[in-house]
Amino acid sequence: MEDEKEDSKVIPTECAIKVFKTTLNEFKNRDKYIKDDFRFKDRFSKLNPRKIIRMWAEKEMHNLTRMQRAGIPCPTVVLLKKHILVMSFIGHDQVPAPKLKEVKLSSEEMKEAYYQTLHLMQQLYNECTLVHADLSEYNMLWHAGKVWLIDVSQSVEPTHPHGLEFLFRDCRNVSQFFQKGGVKEALGERELFNAVSGLNISADNEADFLAEIEALEKMNEDHVQKNGRKAASFLKDDGGLPVLYDE
């Protein structure tokens, strides 16, 4: 960084280094998160697997930067070099902050963690125009009395062809974790989905709920194909187009 005189950025006292690598099988399972992401779609088809892995690192960097700007607790990007991402370390004295799955919280702390998570999901969706797409107790950390979000290389915009399905899956994971953890106030997965997205789907059962989600995705995909990639018809109640985030 000193050699490149990179904006005289302050390097954190402790850093985390994430090296992106994958097997061919993992690669095939994960490409759906990037090949339909309009931010990377045009480049995806022209790249070989090695360069696509670099794109994964770049995607995580962009998503973290977006989250950082919104004030969401997450690692700060220090440097991206090919398929290696250097970030601030969430923890202290080389001891990483525990995952929500691992930490023992009091009932009051658990309740606080739930409301923080709900707010973070709403911020992610409304302020960052992102869906985590792999949110669970395994990639939320508890540090300094706060929930921190990590692992966002797969995160997509709600206009992704499967963006709302990914959000529903996130809501299911979060809802089940906090309900099992004894948080009486924790919303069910369908109520949580509506609370995060503001879509207010009113289906009586999960099958109908998912059918409505898929119908919205199809409607949006058709709309995008006719009107351009940033036209997400379901994201605003007034029928106008959303103001999506520019990097």
From TrEMBL:
A Gene Ontology BP annotation from the UniProt entry: ribosome biogenesis
Record bears the keyword ATP-binding: yes
Molecular function per GO: ATP binding; metal ion binding; protein serine/threonine kinase activity
Catalytic activity from the UniProt record: L-threonyl-[protein] + ATP = O-phospho-L-threonyl-[protein] + ADP + H(+); L-seryl-[protein] + ATP = O-phospho-L-seryl-[protein] + ADP + H(+)
Location within or outside the cell: Cytoplasm
Residues of the RIO kinase domain: 4-198
EC primary class: transferase
Keyword ATP-binding part of the UniProt annotation: yes
Enzyme Commission numbers on file: 2.7.11.1
Family: Belongs to the protein kinase superfamily. RIO-type Ser/Thr kinase family.
Record's protein name: Serine/threonine-protein kinase RIO3
Species this chain originates from: Diceros bicornis minor (South-central black rhinoceros)
